[in-house]
Amino acid sequence: MTSASANQVVRLHETGGPEVLRVETLPIPQPGKGEVLLRQVALGVNFIDTYFRSGLYKFPTLPAIPGMEGAGIVEAVGEGVTTLKPGARVAYAGVLGAYAHYRTIAADRLVELPESISFELAAGIMLRGLSAHMLLRQVYNVKKGDPILVYAAAGGVGQLMCQWGKHLGAHVIGVTSSPEKAEIIRACGAADVIVGTDELPEQVRRITNGAMVPVVYDSVGRDTFETSLNCLAPRGLMVSYGNASGPVENFNVAALSAHGSLYLTRPTLMTYIAKPQDLQASAKALFEVLAKGILKPTIGQHFALAEAAQAHEALEGRKTTGSTILTL
Ligand code: NDP
């Protein structure tokens, strides 16, 4: 068991703007049955953290510790844990309570890290990389030659989608808000980049010689949903997987028929890694493409734990590229 007694965390007592994130000191928790105590080294800051903080997504109870991704060292194991020992290097994605030096977590939510993957890299790619795997291999199985439309392509998930999509043989069309980000997206392997969304369907029509795309990966939500439907080929798949501009509301199902017998899915990574064996299989696939150099993740921003509010401001202000992490 650790000799430290205090646990610095970032917690919120009510939802709201970044200012609700408070640095607090709590006791170090004890691992229960099936759990381990983790000494965290690096944490991921993901856009989903801002949805929980703002109240768009609900914490089970308040006060709550936000954050869903981290990497560190197993400090102690609880009753019944046989798969991990103290000292194991591990990481996780999709489990609330990350913004802390120490946390407890169910052992079957952890993935052991290969020596080649540093804690910082793990904190930058677990949630985003597993999401890219889900989107490109499971939600829609990208095939050689597919033109695919990827929003926020310079972001954490977006850069990995460009690199992995190119490797799968897709013609990646990235969408972003600035020429500077467009350069980053090209360097990640996108064949085309569109800056701004005003004439997106027309640009997609030009790039695809009128065919449009079989799949749109839309993480922006409210502002782009209708535009995305206009970019799809008949019987194409609309993947609405985020709400960066706000949630999509009042959706009229008939729009799917009007745009050409479209399919719509609203996936969440949590479903795709809910079973421990699915989590392990997806992590294995992710670590393989990392080891082969197919993914070259960028940690664009490092913050201290106490700077979590600044990290949220940067993410929501569209000022980040690649992954954002907190180092402890
Ligand atoms: P990003 O690094 O991609 O940051 C978000 C980006 O969204 C911004 O940089 C910006 O890029 C773009 N954006 C577009 N409109 C807005 C807006 N109104 N306000 C702020 N940003 C906007 O974040 P992540 O990689 O953490 O996540 C990307 C998306 O994927 C998020 O929407 C997230 O919710 C979603 N996601 C969903 C998962 C799921 O299971 N469904 C799992 C993981 C992520 P630009 O300036 O280039 O437009």
Automatic annotation (TrEMBL):
Signal peptide: none annotated. InterPro entries: ADH-like_C, ADH-like_N, ER, GroES-like_sf, NAD(P)-bd_dom_sf, QOR-like, Quin_OxRdtase/zeta-crystal_CS. NCBIfam families: PRK10754.1 (NF008024). It holds the Pfam family ADH_N. GO terms for molecular function: mRNA 3'-UTR AU-rich region binding; NADPH binding; quinone reductase (NADPH) activity; zinc ion binding. This is Alcohol dehydrogenase. The keyword Aminoacyl-tRNA synthetase does not apply. Keywords: NADP, Oxidoreductase.
